Amino acid sequence: MTTTTQEETLGFQTEVKQLLHLMIHSLYSNREIFLRELISNGADACDKLRYQALDNDALYEGDSELRIEIEHDADANTVMIRDNGIGMSRDDVISNLGTIARSGTAEFLKQLSGEQQKDAKLIGQFGVGFYSGFIVADEVTVRTRRADLPHDAGVEWRSRGEGEFSVANIERDARGTEIILHLKDDAKEFADDFRLKSLVRKYSDHIEVPVRMPRTEVERDENGKEIEGSEKIVWETVNEATALWVRSKSEISDDEYKAFYKHVAHDFSDPLTWSHNKVEGKLEYTSLLYVPGRAPFDLYERDGARGLKLYVQRVFIMDDAEQFLPLYLRFIKGVVDTRDLSLNVSRELLQQDPQVEKMKSALTKRSLDMLKKLSKDDEKYQTFWNTFGSVLKEGPAEDYANRDKIAGLLRFATTHTDSATQDQSLAAYVERMKEGQQKIYYIVADSFNAAKHSPHLEIFRKKGIEVLLLSERIDEWLMSHLTEFDGKSFVDVAKGELDLGEIEGEEEKKAQEETAKAKEGLIKRVKEALGDEVQEVKVTHRLTDSPACVVLPEHEMGFQMRRIMEAAGQKLPEVKPILELNPEHGLVDRLENAGEDSFADLARILLDQAIIAEGGHLDDPAAYVKRLNSLLTA
Ligand SMILES: Nc1ncnc2c1ncn2[C@@H]1O[C@H](COP(=O)(O)OP(=O)(O)OP(=O)(O)O)[C@@H](O)[C@H]1O
């Protein structure tokens, strides 16, 4: 009989309550995953014990055969999942099974809408773990003892999943954790030997820890008759119980790879692709890398979980070893198992180890190659790009050495399709380049529409030259680290002198020079009227439909980046734009013929309009409206 003492009832953290509620309602059609989640936790607990026992064998308490056992009782309607892993102390239980410590949880939960299908998807990004027991159970009991604590330091945790849980101290001889699910009436189907076995095989075959279930064996006499009273329970290992990555590729089915992904990534959905490699030679390691099909909720959190699961000679060392991949590949999930590190390696040591640096560079290449392969499948690659494209865009700045490879993986919206979908590669752009075109043109704006309708594109549209339409916050940063692709340099169409190279014929250039000369007087007057509002005034040949546009000097920070930095509170030195006027436009004609009384106002209107069209804000919008109105009523 277990004696319970120091029983107390505690409330779940608000986030847990919300999660429980949503999970129970939105994961209804996917209920069986509870078993995978609980086995996964048991396997992690065994991994942790094995790791800690490396330098403290006593933790095994004479039983080093790590295992998970599953039992059920159809009469009592219960399923029990038991492991002899690391176990938990009372404090561990209270914090692990009463709160969610991951950062960003509250914000994540705010996104949930109450709409089942949507929420089920979102919850998949979050990983439900232990709490998934409540999808099938109306009461959960956990009994546990941490491996380094005495038998009287056992803990019993109970909850009906309705806002509170109780904890009490108990005697517990066995270390590790057992979880008893008291099944809901409509989940009785899980208290069934066949069902449980097939679920273990479906979800947990690849887990190295054996998952065992009891079977009653009966002895028979020579006539084949059962001998009464000879029944005994034998424990049968149900899963394959070898670490998946250790097996040879040819023996592993796609379904096994997918199931393993769900275990490592705590994801519900299938990965987009994977790459499994054994490397021998100077460095010896095995890696199994996956590209997920959706983003984890904390992809953009500073301290969001990332990195690979690290094993040294098959012994689990740590989760989220972020030293093996650069930050811009933080969406990659998987495992790395090596002989080249010590079992005692810590996060700090990983940071300094030159072997780790070499593996990082090899794994980075593998990941980029895997993405390249994935890009052959348009549909899948588009899913990847829509999900992780803006993370990959951090690549050229972070990983100079691989920037060509990364550039090949980028996808853009361009004037070729004029659609906001980023689905055009630079290789495709280069293939479509006009005869005589030597550069890759792009524009950066605050929104897709601002980019697409920018006056700067007029000449490009007229001449049929494709321009990349960039409008994500990271885009200007990206472009400042990409200098060329396939030998062609990148040119921001809103900066510097417009140089269309050989696309423009000699005659065209000459005609432009002549116009510029003819308009010298006008340019001078405008410059005088605008004073130091502008750096320079010029005649443009960028425009066909608009009267004017503003440009920046070539090496100046772009307008979009300026606005982002200013919004973030950065003080930047003021930069005056260059105003370019379209000599073919009626308004410019009108300006040229305007009398002294209206010239300055009209010039100012052209400047303000050009700023607005480029997505900028006017210093004094009311003055602009006033000027425009007086012109309209004149
Ligand atoms: N069987 C177990 N033995 C020991 N500790 C456990 C066990 N199950 C859960 N825990 C502890 O409780 C914590 C919370 O578990 P939970 O499953 O909710 O989240 P998780 O495993 O950390 O992440 P995920 O949601 O991605 O599964 C675990 O991190 C672990 O410390």
From TrEMBL:
UniProt: ATP binding residues: 37, 41, 83, 88, 96, 103-104, 125-130, 177, 347
InterPro entries: HATPase_C_sf, HATPase_dom, Heat_shock_protein_90_CS, HSP90_C, Hsp90_fam, Hsp90_N, Ribosomal_Su5_D2-typ_SF
Principal location: cytoplasm
SMART domains linked: HATPase_c
Ranges where the record places region A: 1-347
Keywords: ATP-binding, Chaperone, Cytoplasm, Nucleotide-binding, Stress response
Domain of life, per lineage: Bacteria
Signal peptide, first to last residue: none
Acetylation among keywords: no
Region called C, residue ranges: 564-634
Subcellular location: Cytoplasm
Listed GO CC annotations: cytoplasm
UniProt-recorded Gene Ontology molecular function terms: ATP binding; ATP hydrolysis activity; ATP-dependent protein folding chaperone; unfolded protein binding
Domain Histidine kinase/HSP90-like ATPase residue range list: 30-187
Record region (B): 348-563
Keyword ATP-binding appears in the UniProt entry: yes
Family stated for the protein in its record: Belongs to the heat shock protein 90 family.
Complexes and interactors: Homodimer.
Function text: Molecular chaperone. Has ATPase activity.
Protein name in the entry: Chaperone protein HtpG
